Amino acid sequence: MAEQLKPMPADWQRALAVVAHPDDLEYGCASAVAVWTDAGREVSYLLATRGEAGIDTLPPAEAGPLREREQRASASVVGVSNVEFLAYSDGVIEYSLALRRDIAAAIRRYRPELVITLNPEDTWGGLYWNTPDHKAVGRAVLDAAGDAGNRWIFPDTEAEPWTGVRWVAVAGSDAPTHAVDVTGGLERGVRSLLEHRAYLEALGQDPEPYATSLVEGSAKDTAERFGGLPAVSFRLYDY
User: Fold this and answer.
1) Domain spans in the chain, listed from the N-terminal domain onward
2) 67: exposed, middle or buried (C-beta count within 10 Å: 0-12, 13-18, 19+)?
3) Which residues make beta-bridge pairs with 118?
């Protein structure tokens, strides 16, 4: 039997999810967000780009605003009203002090106990190559969570240092440690991904069966390591 995943901590009130693109959070993680907001927790989203390079048939000047609208609608489905976009260019994000600073500044503003990001490793499951944007943003989040609490690092941000980050949870990890029962959030997780309809159609997918298969299929796969319950998994780091 595969090693069982531990339940995610529940003694927190605010979370900040930081990813590279619109739709990054919707391939499963949004189902967990729905469960958390149902429980009265506050979750905010920070996206490094507007995903403007993600639709081959639309120039970035048109795709960016479209994908931003889709992301805001998607977040609303799972109870998230705070959605902030940084000004990084889609597809060419580099790990940098500027990126760390912008993420640390956001952590200081939102004051989360839990920070969420996406897999920063080279591959997905050892089979599929990860994108440079995911790797750069994920790694910067892991570093910025510590930076945010040090008043001597990036001292010029508007908000005061925040030492209250207790965990960073990495979604899509090849080596997860924890999981969230998403029984009550799975249907909204699917609907959240479906709000990215223009993007999904540009990928050549039929949105409804594609979204259902991905979100529900991943949750059912994780159930094998979480007591048979549909779940979203994370690798949890203490801070």
Assistant:
1) 6-238
2) buried
3) 171
CA 31, CA 216: separation in Å to the nearest integer? Answer: 10
Q: What is the pLDDT of residue 73?
A: 98
Q: Rounded to whole angstroms, how far apart are CA atoms 222 and 233?
A: 7
Count, residues in the chain? 239
In sign, the C-alpha dihedral spanning 178, 182, 186, 190 is: negative
Series of mean pLDDT values for 10-residue runs along the chain (239 residues):
90 98 96 98 98 96 98 98 97 98 98 98 90 98 98 96 98 96 98 97 93 96 97 98
Half-sphere exposure of 65 (CA within 13 A, CB side): 3
Amino acid, res. 19: V
Cα→Cα distances 110→11, 50, 77, 184, 229, Å: 17, 20, 21, 26, 31
The answer to whether 25 and 196 are in contact (CB under 8 A) is no
Asked if residues 149 and 161 have their Cβ atoms less than 8 Å apart, the reply is yes
Q: With CA atoms as reference, report the closest residue to 38 among 94, 88, 91, 77.
A: 77
10 burial class (0-12, 13-18, 19+ CB within 10 angstroms)? exposed
Is 6-238 CATH 3.40.50.150?
no
Distances (CA, A) of 190 to 45, 77, 197: 18, 10, 12
Please say whether the beta carbons of 79 and 197 come within 8 A: no
